[in-house]
Specification:
CATH topology of the largest domain: Rossmann fold
Number of strands: 9
Helix content: 25-40%
Shape: elongated
Strand order of the largest sheet: 3-4-9-8-5-6-7
Order of helices and strands: EHEHEHHEEHEHEHEHHE
Number of helices: 9
Largest sheet: 7 strands, mixed
Strand content: 15-25%
Radius of gyration: 20 Å
CATH architecture of the largest domain: 3-Layer(aba) Sandwich
CATH superfamily of the largest domain: HUPs
């Protein structure tokens, strides 16, 4: 799916001609892209609308979509301030999981991509309780090594508090290691900024996938999107592997 954002012109004839030319160009590019999916049942959609999310939301419902895959790039400066992040608007509002491939993910990927090392960023507060279930399911299917990380902002913590945090993480995992998991999940605690520690853990373990629960968007995404300060946004933009976000 590709969504065109028409540019407003004061002269109606110019606007109509411009939109028609954009649609023709998009159709040609979509046909070229569809060649990569030869042998797979594929439907291509080119929509024209003022808001990308409204078009995506409609297709999710009409086509029964249960996973969105999208690419993103890091905007900087004025363009970031004005345009915000289309990717974040989608994964904050989507009712289905979103797999985002950021600008630092290496290509080409393996013909049959397997997630061999999965990192679950566990939220012990308001994060999505569905994220661990997705991480475990993907770990099972890929026979991967699962690592669970929780980040604590305050470095000064008692041993008792650290143990409580570890217990909370363990509570999100199955009570006993299922026989279907090839390896025992690893649990780690990080300190400081959540995005920095999660990205660091992913690099150190050469993770192929990061799974994280996120809060949904309010009516307006506001500064969290436009200024790029949200943890999820930082991870999606900077990660060297795909990121699967699961909304509350």
């Amino acid at each position: 799916m590709h969504v065109l954002n028409p540019v407003a012109y004061s002269v109606p004839d110019v606007a109509a001609d411009t939109i028609a030319a954009q649609e023709q160009c998009a159709d040609r590019e979509m046909q070229r892209l569809a060649q990569h999916f030869a042998g797979l049942p594929t439907e291509t959609i080119v929509e024209c609308g003022l808001g990308i999310w409204s078009s995506v939301e409609r297709v999710i419902e009409d086509c029964g979509v249960d996973l969105i895959v999208l690419g993103t790039h890091e905007r900087r400066g004025v363009s970031k301030l004005l345009l915000g992040s289309v990717a974040e608007e989608i994964f904050r509002k989507s009712c289905v999981p979103v797999l985002t491939v950021g600008p630092n993910v290496p290509t080409p990927l393996e013909p049959e991509m397997r997630f061999r090392r999965i990192l679950l960023a566990a939220s012990l507060g308001s994060g999505s309780s569905a994220a661990p279930a997705y991480a475990i399911s993907l770990t099972e299917k890929s026979r991967a090594l699962l690592t669970v990380i929780h980040v604590i902002r305050e470095v000064q913590q008692s041993t008792e508090q650290m143990n409580e945090s570890l217990d909370d993480i363990a509570a999100k995992m199955p009570p006993e290691r299922p026989t279907r998991l090839t390896y025992d999940p690893q649990k780690i605690i990080g300190y400081g900024g959540a995005a920095e520690r999660i990205l660091e853990a992913a690099r150190e373990r050469q993770s192929n996938l990061i799974v994280m629960g996120i809060r949904g968007a309010a009516k307006h995404l506001g500064a969290a999107v436009h200024l790029g300060q949200a943890t999820a946004h930082k991870i999606v933009v900077a990660a060297a592997c795909p990121v699967l976000t699961v909304r509350n």
